[in-house]
Amino acid sequence: MKYIKDYKEGDRVFDIYLCKHMQSAVTKNGKPYINVILQDKTGTIDAKVWEPNNAGIEDFDTLDYIEVYGEVNNFQGALQVNVKRIRVCREGEYDPADYLPVSKKNNDEMYKELLGIIGTIKNPYIKQLLNAFFAEDEAFIKKFRKSSAAKTMHHGFVGGLLEHTLSVTKLCDYLCGCYPLLKRDLLLAAAMCHDIGKVKEISLFPENDYTDDGQLLGHIIMGCEMIGEKVAKIPGFPPVLASELKHCILAHHGEYEYGSPKKPALFEAVALNMADNTDAKMQMMTEIFDNVTDSNWLGFNRVFESNLRSTRME
Amino acid sequence: MKYIKDYKEGDRVFDIYLCKHMQSAVTKNGKPYINVILQDKTGTIDAKVWEPNNAGIEDFDTLDYIEVYGEVNNFQGALQVNVKRIRVCREGEYDPADYLPVSKKNNDEMYKELLGIIGTIKNPYIKQLLNAFFAEDEAFIKKFRKSSAAKTMHHGFVGGLLEHTLSVTKLCDYLCGCYPLLKRDLLLAAAMCHDIGKVKEISLFPENDYTDDGQLLGHIIMGCEMIGEKVAKIPGFPPVLASELKHCILAHHGEYEYGSPKKPALFEAVALNMADNTDAKMQMMTEIFDNVTDSNWLGFNRVFESNLRSTRME
Amino acid sequence: MKYIKDYKEGDRVFDIYLCKHMQSAVTKNGKPYINVILQDKTGTIDAKVWEPNNAGIEDFDTLDYIEVYGEVNNFQGALQVNVKRIRVCREGEYDPADYLPVSKKNNDEMYKELLGIIGTIKNPYIKQLLNAFFAEDEAFIKKFRKSSAAKTMHHGFVGGLLEHTLSVTKLCDYLCGCYPLLKRDLLLAAAMCHDIGKVKEISLFPENDYTDDGQLLGHIIMGCEMIGEKVAKIPGFPPVLASELKHCILAHHGEYEYGSPKKPALFEAVALNMADNTDAKMQMMTEIFDNVTDSNWLGFNRVFESNLRSTRME
Amino acid sequence: MKYIKDYKEGDRVFDIYLCKHMQSAVTKNGKPYINVILQDKTGTIDAKVWEPNNAGIEDFDTLDYIEVYGEVNNFQGALQVNVKRIRVCREGEYDPADYLPVSKKNNDEMYKELLGIIGTIKNPYIKQLLNAFFAEDEAFIKKFRKSSAAKTMHHGFVGGLLEHTLSVTKLCDYLCGCYPLLKRDLLLAAAMCHDIGKVKEISLFPENDYTDDGQLLGHIIMGCEMIGEKVAKIPGFPPVLASELKHCILAHHGEYEYGSPKKPALFEAVALNMADNTDAKMQMMTEIFDNVTDSNWLGFNRVFESNLRSTRME
Amino acid sequence: MKYIKDYKEGDRVFDIYLCKHMQSAVTKNGKPYINVILQDKTGTIDAKVWEPNNAGIEDFDTLDYIEVYGEVNNFQGALQVNVKRIRVCREGEYDPADYLPVSKKNNDEMYKELLGIIGTIKNPYIKQLLNAFFAEDEAFIKKFRKSSAAKTMHHGFVGGLLEHTLSVTKLCDYLCGCYPLLKRDLLLAAAMCHDIGKVKEISLFPENDYTDDGQLLGHIIMGCEMIGEKVAKIPGFPPVLASELKHCILAHHGEYEYGSPKKPALFEAVALNMADNTDAKMQMMTEIFDNVTDSNWLGFNRVFESNLRSTRME
Amino acid sequence: MKYIKDYKEGDRVFDIYLCKHMQSAVTKNGKPYINVILQDKTGTIDAKVWEPNNAGIEDFDTLDYIEVYGEVNNFQGALQVNVKRIRVCREGEYDPADYLPVSKKNNDEMYKELLGIIGTIKNPYIKQLLNAFFAEDEAFIKKFRKSSAAKTMHHGFVGGLLEHTLSVTKLCDYLCGCYPLLKRDLLLAAAMCHDIGKVKEISLFPENDYTDDGQLLGHIIMGCEMIGEKVAKIPGFPPVLASELKHCILAHHGEYEYGSPKKPALFEAVALNMADNTDAKMQMMTEIFDNVTDSNWLGFNRVFESNLRSTRME
Q1: Under DSSP, is residue D249 helix (H, G, I), strand (E, B) or coil?
Q2: Which residue from A240, B184, D209, E55 has the fewest beta carbons nearer than 10 Å?
Q3: How far apart are CA A147 and CA C53, in angstroms?
Q4: In this structure, how many other beta carbons lie within 10 angstroms of the beta carbon of residue C74?
Q5: Separation in Å, CA F251 to CA E209, E253, F270
């Protein structure tokens, strides 16, 4: 397969791509045409169908996988595909993993590592709860492993939720080694569950957008509800422990203005907030600088409220 | 019964009061004594037991109802009871209503009015849900009718939660008459349920303080959970409707910094926020000016961020 | 008359419209043409005069009422009028009400309702003052009834100021019924006068823009001045009452950052602030959802600081 | 007269002082006594009347001038007057200037300097307006020359308003020399009038407290009204000029949160805001360091949001 | 030389200009061309090189001084130069002063005035320090006299840093006359040095952009370092005086959010902050209104957070 | 030695303590006495010298080590020492470590661990710089190892600066393992140096208070200067690297309002800010809960802006 990032002017294209977006339009002269954005895991490219009524152009829609035949042109300095033929593909003809941004880390290994940490939990109720989510609830596990951690911002790729969860959990484990007053079982459970509501807040790829419930309720509240439902099925689960765990979830954004209805009131809630914030910021920086090869100033970044540049050490 | 607000210097006291607070202490000369705060529904007064080891002083504790024999003195301009004898009373010897701040409005009538409004709801699922809380759940109803709406701030008296709920509901009904795009069934349901979590957030009188779950989770989240639990028992309850109702509860404080994890995103959520805020402010003002008989400036008020005075119209 | 909202591609146009805006321009090839925006009460549409030097094109200007002859085309998916002839009309040839956004409510009825409420005021000085504005000052009444309540935001149509004033006044009257400590005469007077300065702040339609004094002084200060002038002509008007009324006007935005030089310090000032804010928000919501027929998310709204959608109840 | 700042332990006191405050009280043993604060222009001192029922103690009240006979004691390290006799004095027995904080600058000279600057104004309308206030309105002039510029903060002494006004006016004149686009006549008029509303906002000494109108309306609005009233009496006063002058008054605090209902929109309004703020801060600093003789850190200052110390230059 | 502000449609151009910016591009039809922005001290103008491969078009780059031969056209209402020939010029062929925005005040005179003020300083250490910068350090003096005081905002022209420094110093001198507790030597030294770090923060014209160190460290910190380095070379310089001077530099922005790591804690630091802010605001206003000939409202200005207009006085 | 935390009512005291504070006073009856606060590493206790003129009471002062003979009383529920004899001790009679709060961790081991990490640095210039501070500058090392990291807040004990520095450095090292784009040499150097300015900002124990330079300049700026001075002595130290390191120091508080003159602009600066903040919060929590044995709510904490309680897990 020819990846989009490798296109050059004059190339002939004949491959399957994800149609990220399509929209019919009319030229100044009143001629209909179609604007298309093609996507694979290496990026996106604009494409135009100038003869939408040609026999070679099948009916297609946004988020279809389409086989495209065409030519790469240069329009005002940017590459563009002039599409001559389009065929809609069926499942099986393509591997979705080729078309979506995906975590660089191995999904199976990350998942296994998470299960390994659950194995070290001593409190039987917490262990039971974590297994109920991460080892037994197949529907949840499937979504959890595929979800991104965000629509934009950071970890916005397949497996991103798992990668972020694991990273926060391990940082919390490190903190438990440094600050012995932290209750490891509670903190690690809170770390693993802190973003589980995102499987309901953000739809799966290729859509990866806020759901209706995501907009109305948000992942913090839905995650808290999900814990309430699982806890109700574990006989004898200590009620104060359940409230403490929910509190950590509710408070993990740390500030009211970031959507937490409670400020952290327990040591573990503070620790989770620090770990979540640290991994988020570190990952954002990683994504910003990942493809930067020079050390020019990148311009003002709204999240970090600063102009940024990569480090030179010269 | 002689009410505290009617005490005068030199009065002899011999009646039952609520012991709001007691604490043992030692004089500069090393003599033990007891500080007491006595309460009835008209106010509180300081009292001292200078001879705690006398035979007439029974063992008593904070929140006991105690029969007090003593004398009213003036100490540095404030009245104080010099207590000679104390006897702890049993339930039945006193009427708690005499000792607690109580809504001026009739509890039965307010409750009946609320049920009457439920009768006008047309959506069968919403009606079923409201009945499940306000007509069928005896344990909930008992607490809901006795709760205050706040520890301090406004409606901080027995029946306050019911009074506030009814007032907000009626204001919402008024708004439905003015702005026809509002969905009355949803808005009135949200109004009735917006503070139900307070029955778990604040303990009943005479304690009337934040519970552990109140601190960790808050009434917004617990109210949302309570709705989720009742909805789960109503077959066919439309899921989007449930989310919309929960959203109104979550967003009713209007701002993140007031503990709402979501800003209002539906017309009804905005209306509920306006009505709740209006009744809260109007009631606070009513409580501030209720016993003010002159029109002097009262000094800076931190909630209203202003010096306040009652209106003169001269 | 053919309304703009009913235009379809290919229609022939021959009717009078308000010229909301006109600007001469030059094509890439150096040919002069004229960009025009036509308006009637149902909306606006772009128009082009490609041959501005033709005999059929009279000299015209922004805010003229013009008779237009032309054809409706589709340009890049949007409708556009290709104008062949233009004639400037004189007063009398058209009814301005057809060309401006107008309150859906009957202006005469609203005005009568307002006068009716003045009839219920008991304080003779306040009654005299309100009559001086709303019953006797013809120049004021004419402007007050035609003004919008805002350039954008809410009630931005002919009669909007009257509609908003009446709505706030009635909500205040409702509150007086709920909270007996409110002084009805003062609160209703403040409600009726709270935005009278807008007749000087915003010019009448079709311009409907900030005046020079509006920019320099604002409606809050000018409204306060207007009250001062009328009060000076009422013998014996109690000076404290005058200051209390002015205070309600000054404080009605509730917060310094919204342009109020004083925070509400009287119960009535707080009530007015609540009622004004409630009607403003409710009306904004009404205008947002008025023409929305689906329940898709509308995108982030800067006033409500939230994504919004209409309620589904499914 | 013996000034309070010169009192020493053991001194006998027999002189007239202002009674800044008096309040009856009762000792722990139930004996009545009176707490008094005596004031002269050099400071204040606590005093006690231990035998209030003695024949030598006349009835007196807060803000009376009283002849005091007594003895200076040291109580817990602070001086205190033990008062034996009190006689209430009549006007004429004392010179109020001895009892009030007074500007160090000569009131007549400052006033003359202000009139001199009015003499340099060229615009006839502005000159007429300034004369109407500062040369012709005797009642205004009397208050203006005696007022303080604030209850606390800065220039809180007799003549403080005149001193502040003159200082701001001269700084504005300096700025006119530096930035030629400034309109000197408008800016100087605005500077002279910017705080005239304070003669209504703060009562005269010895009370020097906010008036009712001061609380309800504030000096910014009342100053603007006062200008409006004088302008109305000057035939042909240009209306835009009047609005521009009022705008400068309204905007002189520079920020909404400081009570300005408008942000500066004219060059002169910005200049006035800068000059007012600069003189206020410089005078506060002068008052803070005026009696400081060492260069220790003075502790956190809430206005300057910093710990402060006087400069050492070593 | 023909200045850009005097260009008219149809003019023939044949003169030397600064090439502010150049970028190669391709037309829709794939033809290469070059976008150019030409600059002289009166403004900038767009230019196009439609035949970049012509013999008459020498290789040139951004910030070259180029001799341009071409014609002034009108494109969509804006003037544009159609360039036929370009020749790159050598130093000496042009006077850079013709191409850069330059202070209207005479650089030599301003510099002399600054030296004159240094002559009035009495403290020998401060005098030595100021001479070390402004009289002896040739490299520094050269940059200091040519620098702008900002990239945008105010004083953004050759000589702007000197003009701003002198203006602040003189305003501080004026304040010393009004508030005698100010230490003149310290305040004037702080005024002269407050922005010296800008010679390292912003590169010289024609680039006039933030340097790498400017971004990483900022002029406040670098200015403080520069003082530390010079002080280290003056034997016996009092260490507290050095810290007080550095403090004034660190605190001169007045607020943490404007990049000052310390709030003003000394009287002189407060005075410098006031003077710097006043000159900045006054100069911004001067630059805004300098070329405005009418008194229309200019639209919302983000620095002054207000719509602005020039004063009419009518 | 008898530690203060072990005192009981009725104990006889005869040991050496640090006099944290002393102040002469006078009883209501005019009798002189002395208030004293005694301190050892386990806490502080109030003491009174009722007969300051007795022969057994030597002249002593704040921060003297004094041998105290007296008796432990209970005054209003709190213990208090009634002091009969005081003798001022000479160095050598006592071990200061017994009187000051001290890190629980071994100072030598922490220091050795820090040197060990320096040994792993690969960049020769950074290694040289770190050795210049932590291995070679004896005066610096002595202070650095004894300093606290704060006057209050967290790590406010002997060795606190070393403990905090080591903890932040190790957390940064952990982050380098997780996020490979981080430059380990730069980040670890920044971590080790981020608070070195505190050796100048806060005086050593027992005083442990802000110095004059600490108030005027602060540890961020002084730390940056200290780096500049050492760098100047290392031939060939890359200038950009020096600026990047200084930037990390300047930006490590993360926000302007916390005194950082720059927001983090490099990945390492962001990481340092996260690590510093995390260790600070975790240590504050550790100090809050260290001596808490129950799980009651502790009341509102101003740093965490929340009521806090220790975790129960029941």
Answers
A1: helix
A2: E55
A3: 63
A4: 13
A5: 22, 17, 8
List pLDDT tens digits, range E47-97. 999 999 888 999 998 889 999 999 998 877 778 999 999 999 998 899 877
Task: List CB contacts (< 8 A) between D212 and chain B.
Answer: 297
Rounded Cα distance between C277 and D226, Å, is 31
Q: Kindly state the tokens that stand for A222.
A: 């839905």
Chains E and B touch (3+ CB pairs under 8 A): no
Which residues, including other chains, have CB under 8 Å from residue A37's CB and lie 6 or more apart?
A19, A20, A21, A22, A44, A45, A46, A47
In chain A, the N- to C-terminal Cα span, in Å, equals 41
E84 token code pair: 């036929």
Which residues of chain A fall below pLDDT 50? Answer: none
Nearest CB among F26, F212, F215 relative to D77 is that of F26
Count the neighbouring beta carbons within 10 Å of the beta carbon of residue B37: 16
**Distances in whole angstroms, Cα of residue E283 to Cα of each of A303, C135, E201:** 32, 51, 21
HEC string of D144-197 equals: HHHCCCCCCCCCCCECHHHHHHHHHHHHHHHHHHHCCCCCHHHHHHHHHHCCCC
CA B97 to chain centroid, in Å, comes to 14
What percent of the residues of chain F are helix, what percent strand, and what percent coil, each to the nearest 5?
A: 40, 20, 35
Contact, A103 vs A79, CB < 8 A?
Answer: no
Task: Pick left, alpha or beta for residue E299 (phi over 0 → left; psi -120 to 50 → alpha; otherwise beta).
Answer: left
Q: What is the pTM of this model?
A: 0.88
Place E205 in a pLDDT band, splitting at 50, 70 and 90: confident
Query: Which of F216, F244, F249, F252 is the best residue to mutate to test the E interface, defined by the most E CB atoms within 10 Å of its own CB?
Result: F216
F120 CB contacts (<8 Å, ≥6 apart)? none
Q: What is the pLDDT of residues F225-241, one digit of tens each?
A: 999 999 999 999 999 99
Residue position matching structure tokens 């081991």: F109
Chains C, D in contact: 3+ Cβ pairs under 8 A? yes
Residue of chain D minimizing CA distance to E239: D314
pLDDT tens digits for range D241-280: 999 999 999 999 999 999 999 999 999 999 999 999 999 9
- Residue whose structure tokens are 């504790």: B61
Give the type of residue at B252. Answer: H
Number of H helices, E strands in chain E: 10, 7
Interstrand relation of B78-88 and B65-75 (parallel, antiparallel or unpaired): antiparallel
Read off the pLDDT of residues C64-83 as tens digits, 9 standing for 90 and up: 999 999 999 887 777 899 99
State residue C28's pLDDT score. 64
pLDDT confidence bin for F24, thresholds 50/70/90: confident
Q: Which two tokens stand for residue B209?
A: 């303080």
List of E strands, chain B:
12-26, 32-40, 43-49, 65-75, 78-88, 297-301, 306-309
Best interface-test mutation with B: which of D215, D217, D256, D257 has the largest number of B CBs within 10 A? Answer: D215
Residue C123, judged by CB atoms within 10 A of its CB (0-12, 13-18, 19+), counts as: middle
Give this complex's ipTM.
0.86
Express each pLDDT in D186-226 by its tens digit.
999 999 999 999 999 999 887 888 999 999 999 999 999 99
Residues of F within 8 A of B30 (CB-CB) are 74
Contacts of E210 in chain A (CB under 8 A): 297
**Please, are residues C231 and C242 in contact by the beta-carbon 8 Å criterion?**
yes
Give the pLDDT score at B231: 98
Asked if B40 and B17 count as a contact pair (C-beta separation under 8 A), the reply is yes
Check residue C29 and give its pLDDT. 67
SS3 of residue A142 by DSSP:
helix
Distances (CA, A) of E252 to A265, E261, E269: 39, 10, 6
Average pLDDT (B289-296) is: 85
